[in-house]
Every structure is written in C-alpha cells, then in structure tokens.
Amino acid sequence: MGMRLVLCMLIQLSTRIMCQNTDKNNIDVELDKVQCKPEQVHIAYGNSLTEMVVMWTTPGQCESQVWYGSGPWDMTEKVHATKETLSYLEPTKAPKYIYRALLNNLEPGKTYYYMPASNDVTNEPLYFKTPPAGPSWSPEFLIYGDLGIHSKSLALLAQEAMHGKYDAVLHIGDFGYNLYDSVPDGQYMGENVGDIFMRQIEEIASHVPYMTAPGNHEIEPSEDFKQYGVRFSMPNTDWPIPLTKIWYSLEIGPVHLISYSSEVFFLQDKRYIEAQRQWLTADLEAANKNRPSTPWIIALGHRPMYCSNNNSDDCRKNDSLVRLGLEDMFFKYGVDLVIQAHEHSYERLWPMYKGVVLAENYTNPRAPIQLITGSAGSKHGVDTMMALNETWSAFRMDDKALNSYARLKVYNATTLYWEQVAVFGGAVLDSIWVTQESHGPFSSSAFQGEQKVKIDEQIKVDEQNLEKHNLRQKPETTGDTFKDKVSKVIQGADIKVIIGVSFAVFILVFLLVVCIVRACSGRRTKSYRRWDSLDYGKKFYSNVKTDDTNVDDFEVDVTDGRSKLIDSSRD
Question: In which band, very low, low, confident or very high, does the pLDDT at 15 lie, cut at 50, 70 and 90?
C-alpha cells in the first residue's frame, strides 16, 4: 500500500514537471511569434543585378536568416542576416531590430522565392524576378516622390507594381514624411511614421527592388539621416548607409542609374558637398568611358534645379544651391535625364542650360532633360504653379497631377518613353519620346547668337553666386603633390592625435637643440693652467692648441679680469 502511494506521487510529480516544461515551451514559442515575426520586408539590388538585398524588422533580437530557392517548396539555400538596432527619438519607446541578408550569384532572368526567418518564425514565401543579363534589353521603371502615410495612392500603386513589368521602383525622396516622427493623432496615433510607411510599401517592395534617393524629410534633427540609413540598403555603399556616401550608382541594362543627394547643400556641415562632387565626377567620367555598352545616364535627386511653382523654394531662386552645385556637371558629362521631386506637382522642362532653351523638342537634345514628379501623395497637398509660364517649362500641372506617378521605359540605346499617369483612373497626363543618337558630354561650343549671349550672362551671375555661397569647386590635382598628401593624412586622421604627435615632436626637437647648444658651448670653453705653483700675482695662463694660428700666450689677471699678451721670451 505504501509503495503504491509513493509510485502515484512520483507519477503525479513527473507529470506536473512535464506539463510545466510544455507550458514553458509553449510560452517561448508564443513569445517568439510576437517578438520575432518578420515584418516590413523589402528588397533592393546589391552591387550588381545578380545580387539582391532582403531586409526586414522585428520587435525583439532574434537569430535571423533568409531561405530561398527556385520554388516555394524548394527554398534550400540559406543566408544569415546581419542586424542593426533602430532607436527612436522618444526614450520610452522600445527599439526595433533591422536585418539585412545579401543573396548573391543569382541567375539572370529567373524567378526566386524567399522567406525571411527570425528564430524560425516565418511568413509565407515571397518572390522576385532577376533582370536579364547584359545591356541589350529594355528596363522599365515605376517612379514617384513625396509619398505620405495618409496617401490614398498606396493601394493602387501596389496594384500597378504587381503587374510584373517593372525592374525597379524609383522613390525620389520623402518617405512617409519624417521616418523618425510619431503620429500625433488619428488612425496611427502614437505609432512611428517609419514603421507605418515600411508596412504600407511591403506589398510593393517585397517583390520589386525598391531603389531610393534621400529627400529633405529624411534629414533628422541631428542631421544624421539615421532612420533612412538603417531602414534602406543601396548598392555600392555601406550599410547602414553613411552620410559620407549617401549616393550610389548602378547599371541596369542600357542605363547607368545615379542616385545623388540634393540635401548636402542644405546641411550645416558643408564637407559633404565636396565629397559628393568628387564622387560624382569620378562616377560620370567612368560612365562616359562605358557609353558604348551603357549609353543612357539617368540621375535621381530630390530637389529640382528649376521649377515654376508659386513658392520660395530653392528651385525658384536665381542663386539656387542645387543648380549651382550640379547643373554644370550634368551638362559637362552629358546626363540624359534628371528626375526630381519635392514640388507636389508635375513639370517637364525643355532641354536647356543656364535657363536658356536650346530646343523645343527631344530629338538629340543638347542638354539634360529635367522632369519633376513629386505628386504621389503628399500630406501637404498640392504646390500650385505661377500664373506666368517660364520659357523653359514645356508642360506643367498642379491640382490634376496630385496623386500621380511616372513610368519610364528605355527601349534601346537611342529611344526611351516617359509618361505621367493619374493614380485614380489611370489617365496619361503627359508623355514624351526621347531620341538620342549621340550620347556623350554636351558642349557649349555650338551656342550662337542670342543663346550664347544669354548663357554667357548667366555664367557671370553664377560665378558671383558660387563665390557668395562658397560653392566654387576646389582645383583638381593629381593627388601626388606634398600638399595633397598632407591633406589626405589630415583628413584621414583624428585631429587630436595630430596635435599630440606634433607637440611631442616639438618637445623632442627643442631638447635636441638644447643638447647641441650645450655641447658646442662646452667645446668652446678654454681651459687655463697655472704658470707654476708659486704666487705670481694671481696670474693664470691659457693653453694654446697646436693648430691655432696665433701661438702667443696671453695671461688673465683674475684681479681685474683683463687679458695681456705675454712675451714669448718669457717661456
């Protein structure tokens, strides 16, 4: 009877322990489902079209990787993800964790299925298709800027992106409006803008590479672009994206695509202007050498160089910082298209330079074609146009362009097609064909008559404004001069270290000089000898070195300190 009771108690105890362990495991699993569930999934090209970056977010710290393969039941390849902590401005808000995994050596023209996993918590499989290899195909882009979290365009933009014809989405600045902010009221009250926006674009960005350029609303109070730099990963730069290289380029078929920052001209620290200028110069020089295989150069930047909106934005000023910093470079290196946003409207410009129209058509243009498409859905509404039309403005639309986007298809080495499309109803608001049979740097040598006079006048004004805003380009050198090498050392080292080393060197040199002076003084001091041991009126006599030319002895009278020559006959 006693033994049976003991056995029953042991069975109950073991059952209770097993149940407790099971409950604990169930709790851990449920906690992982909450803390490690991947969300905000999006993709972007790596350093080439055979690489794809997959990114996502979780509330907790989790061991993460991406499974991928050629089918939803054939995801046998695995890549581990790196992690960054995303902190918010509000100290009471818990941080989130951003993951980045690089899929490389992908086959061109192939559909891949992938699935982010954090602590083995996954969502349903997602997919993307890699572009064809080489330059001889026709890429197509979905393009817009200035898209807020309250925009009614998002659902229809997602439908458009899912048609399967786009090789990339190009979002030219202003993501959700202040990724670092919390929503003060309404549907999303208290939530972080960045989290809301990244969830909203997931349907688009998890299937089509989401390529970006930073806008003014990515500038945080500390001017570090932290949310933008951590949430996105772009080609040929680091991750998180550093402010020192927030620009990049990538070749997509026959297109050399450049994303630059118009925001460097408005930061307190002006060093980034020169850093971008040096990078752009090198990149454009290399792109021009490669034009036989990649003829089109297309640049993306948020703030326009010119606009005809009824406001006081930089693009309305004759001393526009963006124009002063970029127009000459884009003209010199023959950039074909400059696509911009910021103004909540749509505008297409004639090919022009220094505000002077060079032709009212797009056949073999002699200057960059500038387009402004910042009307995807801003929380600030529309930016109206001036009553008078600028001569360089070929087409413009404000109210009717609100909630619209652009499509760009580059057919081949000589022809591309651009159109602006209404989100609601799908009406084509504007369209152009561009033909360029001679890609390469543009030249001012062909300017004649009134064109030349006006351009020369504006060049003189620009020279004054460059001085005024301290934007003049520093003289280029080979980098081999002593000054260049010293400058590189100074730029690449901590200034405190330089000062410390310099001070130590100064002390060493000072001590060395003191030692040398003292040694030399010791050698110049002459020794004296007593005439003999008797008292001769306290007179002492100097030694004479054998190599002295003057062999006369002299005496020193220590009583009066005077020297007197001694007759040699006394020796």
Answer: low
